Amino acid sequence: MPDPAVGTAIETLRADFRARLAAAATDRDLKALDDAFLSRRSGSVTALLKQVASVPAEARREFGQLVNALKTEIESALDDKRTEVAATRPPAGAVDVSLASRQVPAGRVHPLMRVRQDVEDIFARMGYEILEGPEVEDDYHNFEALNMPPEHPARDMQDTLYLGVPIPGGIWGAHRSTGARGASSEIAGRGRVPEAQVRAATLLRTHTSAMQIRYMKTFPPPVRLIVPGRVYRRDNLDLSHTPMFQQFEGLVVGRGVTLADLKGTFEAMLRELFGDVKIRLRPSFFPYTEPSAEVDISCQGCGGAGCPTCKHTGWLEILGSGMVHPAVFEAVGYDADEVTGFAFGLGMERVAMLKYGVDDIRLFYENDIRFLEQFPL
Amino acid sequence: MRALLSWLREFVDVPGTAEEVARLMSLRGFAVEAIEPFGPGDTVIDFEVTANRPDCMSMAGMAREVAAAHGLRLRTPGPPPAAARPPRTPARVRRKGPAVLDIVIENPGLCPRYVGAVADVEVGPSPPWMQTRLQAAGIRPINNIVDVTNYVMVEMGQPMHAFDHARLAGAEIRIRTARPGETLRTLDGQPRTLSPDMLAIADAERATAVAGVMGGGDSEVTPATKTIVLESAYFDPLSIRRTSKTLGLKTDASMRFERGADPGCPAAAMARALELIERIGAGRGRGALIDRYPKRMKPVVLRLRRERIAGLLGCPIPDRDVKRILDRLGFTLGVVAGGWRVVVPSRRVDVTREVDLIEEVARHYGFDRLPTTFPALTAAAPPIDPRIARARHLRELLTAAGFFEAVTFGFVAERAAAPFAAGGDLVPIANPLSELFAVLRPSLLPGLVDAVAHNRRREQRDIRLFEIGARFTQRGGERLALACVWTGAAAPEHWSGTGRPVDFFDAKAVVERVGQALGAEVRTTPSQEPWLAPGRSAAVMANGARAGVVGQLADTLVDAHGLPRSDAVYAVELDLDALAPLAGRVVRVEPLPRYPSVTRDISILIDDTLPASDVRRTIGGAAPPTLVQVAEFDRYQGKGISPGKVSLSLRLTFRSSDRTLTDGEVQSAMDDVLAALKEAHGAVQR
Fold first, then answer.
1. Which of B437, B421, B548 is CA-nearest to residue B473?
2. A179 contacts in B (CB within 8 Å)?
3. What are the chain B neighbours of A236 within 8 Å (beta carbons)?
4. A48: pLDDT confidence band, cut at 50, 70 and 90?
5. Span A74-80, average pLDDT
6. Is residue B37 domain-shared with residue B54, that is, in the same domain?
């Protein structure tokens, strides 16, 4: 008869093995199981076999058979499990898909240029022509023709940077001639710009409004124009000023263009740019428009209730505008009794600061990659 | 214009708080810079007065606007409530009497009107109420006489001046231009040299004030002064502005005169000053008020058309509103066919055209009450400016190639610009803000390299930046350029070991990609730029003309921008205006190849100074037209290659559009190629 104690020990080992086998999932687990039960030195089945000497002689045979049967059973179960585990291994040549990828470098469009492209697109959809003008200008186009004769007090509103020497200037439009200096230029499909407009440049333009004159002197009404570009003023760098900044000039001229049209245009444009905002017009003064208006949008930070961003007024100044002054029409040879128009200037930095929550204008000109990469691809 | 609320209320019974007044006035064209508590229970509202409204640089002017905005009546202020002491005699100004002063206007063009009066005075401090009001307006009290002149200026907008009568030679005032080299010590103690285009107030002998700008120290009112000459005049705005600018002297008086004072005001202001002098017990006038006004200015009369108002604003404005608004602002209206005949008050120097009247109507009617419409489109919009379209295209191309767009200033320090200016062709700025912005940039690269340095200092090692913008030279004027800088990795660091730093050929690839995008065939040829590293500098040629540069920045430039020499910085700059005429090709699709191509590899041993372009040219010249492509695929120097030599391996691709090439003809072509390479370059096949 087998010793009941021996039978119990064997059953305990078997149960233990079965439980641990069920939990095993890797080669490493199986190796550990193999070691634990079958190792020559420390396996628990091996240890049980070694007890054969202490088994009474008449039971030895049976004891040996039982333990060996367990050993065979474990070996076979381990083999089966090994096959099973091997079947779950990735195929040869498989990659670890969780490893870091090889980065495709991606740059970003500058936030000011994002704003520029957004605004260009909005106006293009409204049927506006988009043109660039020269950054170096002459006094006539930047001031005089815009109803700011020499010594006009309004010139103080824009502290001008002058060139130490005059340089060839006045070239604008799409297809600049690459030939001799001071050559005329051509606008795609719209003919040549008159030579009379080509003057030596003596200053850095203080506003993109200079292009109003160049355009109207070249083309008859109606006009629907946007001029994006860099402008320069003698302002020191601080949180809200840079000596160079970027503007949009807008100009609409035709029969029956009104201040109400100006309001409607800004409402459509600013809503597209900023979402659901309210706009308001405040009377102001620019020498080249009459009436003139500053345009505010309701502060998004506080919803109009008042906060530090809007200096507790609920409104944020966003652009300057007005109805084109008859003196400007006279300067370019338009009949001020026949046509009316509106003009406006919009600062790209101002838009970008409000739209992206930038509180220091200098960030736009530091070109810090940590700043630039915050804008989406 | 700093307006004390209690003073404002002497002119108009304005209801509400300072904040409410400020809010309404900002919608009438007077932005509010600040609202400050002032003294017990009072407030100063600091209105921003635009350059066209000198009439509002006074309490009366602001009050008129406040009254019109609130629909209230304007009062002429009598004695201030604080002036408890009644005058010893009723204030009355004699218009006739013995002349005690001679006034001669020598130059009525620059001084159309001059009102003078003499008063016997006892100089001392002015009463506290007057001092308080001046302080509220931002003016420092001096003494009762000077304070009265300043008080009248703040109240009515008319700048005034007081001279010490005893210190004027010959009891005479001459308004004349300065004599060449004439000097004067102004009230601020500064010696001034006047020029003959400046207007001076002189006595019989010498200039004693710079007209409309500042009085002279020699005729200053002092505690010892017993008799004064008071001045209340109208000067030509342009002349005052020029003088003020030339002398670098901006005063409360010059600011008002240069924007345009009221030619109708001097006599009334003089009467008010004499009244106040008597009222505060500072003295009393002697003799007649003298008003020299040789050529009376005619009031501006304008026609205002009803349909023009509607045509400009986008809706008709009811007649009663037009009349009400203009009337409250002091305009006189007469009805004519289709509208009104409007007489402009002389203080409104800004109103010279019909449109100025329409602005007044719109301003006080309220911009918010105008309708919102959209301008009619009468023609299709022309296509986008090709220059702008091209910039957008390049922006997409370069950001996809890993470049961040930068925007840098159009001016740079002369030191930073100099290396980029061929022959020193720089455009200086006449009045730069600082040395850092002294010249217009001759290249976009100084700014971009600075941006690289900025990022390097902030733990960025792999930096790719580009900018599209104007650059300037004296000879060429303004030209549009594209520049790129690249330092650090070309391929980013990776666990597989594929990371690699940028080299010349990465930068060259950018040039070629831009060329492709613009439809221009670009080539690089050796050309040593002073700011590029020796041997790593090339000119970019497009259709035979120079269109840009590519290379590694020279150590001197790297050092100058504070960058480490260990990491090479590559730079590209292209003249987009030069490339522009090449753009805009018409796309015509070619048929796809119908026959297979044959490739042959060769390795040749050549001098290591021989440009690969020469090798390609020789191959192209020797091979039949079926050779469609030549590309280097290996270049080796080192073990087994003698010094001065290089092993260059090339892959040649042959294809015909009308047949399958035979082995024999390709082999024959290869024989010709090898023979030519041997002949031209002594090349040995390996």
1. B421
2. none
3. 433
4. confident
5. 91
6. yes
Any B CB within 8 A of A230 CB? yes
Q: Are residues B247 and B311 in the same domain?
A: no
Cβ distance B313 to A326 less than 8 Å, yes or no, reads no
Contact A348, A366 (CB under 8 A): no
Q: Where in the sequence is the domain holding B359, given as residue range(s)?
A: 301-369
Q: Where are the domains of chain A?
A: 4-88, 111-138+204-372
Q: What are phi and psi of B5, to 5 degrees?
A: -60, -40
> For residues B387 and B577, what is the distance between their CA atoms, to the nearest angstrom?
9
CA distances from A344 to A184, A259, A292, A330 (A): 27, 12, 9, 19
In a domain, B610, yes or no: yes
CB contact under 8 Å between B477 and A263, yes or no, is: no
**Domain covering A111-138+204-372: architecture:** 2-Layer Sandwich (3.30)
Out of B53, B430, B580, the one facing A163 most closely (by C-beta) is B430
The answer to whether B169 contacts chain A (CB < 8 Å) is no
Query: Final residue of a domain: which of B48, B70, B92?
Result: B70
CA distance A21 to chain B (A): 37
Q: Which of residues 289-318 of B touch A (CB under 8 A)?
A: 311-315
Q: Could you tell me the pLDDT band of residue A175, with boundaries at 50, 70 and 90?
A: very low
Token reading at B348: 């409104």
Cis omega before residue B526 (within 30°)? Answer: no
| CA–CA distance, B192 with B251 (Å, rounded to integer) | 15
> Both B280 and B306 in a single domain?
no
Q: CA nearest B485: which of B505, B510, B460?
A: B510
Q: For residues B234 and B108, is the Cβ–Cβ distance under 8 A?
A: no
Identify the pLDDT of residue B177: 95
As beta bridge partners, residue B342 has: B302, B333
Same domain, B25 and B147: no
**What is the pLDDT, as a whole number, of residue B682?**
93
3-state secondary structure of B131: helix
Q: Are residues B451 and B537 in the same domain?
A: yes
Residue B584 confidence (pLDDT): 57
pLDDT digits (tens, 9 = 90+) for B353-405: 999 999 999 999 999 999 999 998 887 877 778 888 889 999 999 999 999 99
Answer yes or no: is B615 within a domain. yes
Do B13 and B135 sit in the same domain of this protein? no
CB A174, CB B387: distance < 8 Å: yes
Q: Best interface-test mutation with B: which of A257, A270, A369, A377 has the largest number of B CBs within 10 A?
A: A369
Task: Output the CA torsion B150→B154→B155→B158 (10° steps).
Answer: 80
- Kindly state the DSSP code that residue A240 receives in the 8-state scheme: T
How many domains would you assign to chain B?
A: 5
CATH number reported for the structural domain that contains residue B324 in this entry? 3.30.56.10
The contacts of residue B360 (CB under 8 Å, 6+ apart) are B325, B326, B329, B331, B351
Residue B107 inside a domain? The answer is: yes
Q: What is the distance between the alpha carbons of residues B487 and B485, in angstroms, rounded to a whole number?
A: 7
Does A236 contact chain B (CB < 8 Å)? yes
Q: Do B384 and A224 touch (CB under 8 A)?
A: no
Residues present in chain B in total: 686
**Any domain includes B316:** yes
Distance CA B219, CA B585 (A): 79
Reference A120, options B105, B137, B384, B649; nearest CA is B384
Residue B89's pLDDT is what? 45
Distance from CA of A203 to the nearest CA of B (A): 9
What residues 52-81 of chain A have any CB closer than 8 A to a CB of chain B? none
Give CA–CA dist B418/B426, Å, rounded.
8
Q: Tell whether B22 and B126 lie within a shared domain.
A: no
Count of CA atoms in the C-beta half-sphere (13 A) of B73 = 3
Structure tokens at B683: 């090349």
- Are the C-beta atoms of A291 and A283 separated by less than 8 Å? yes
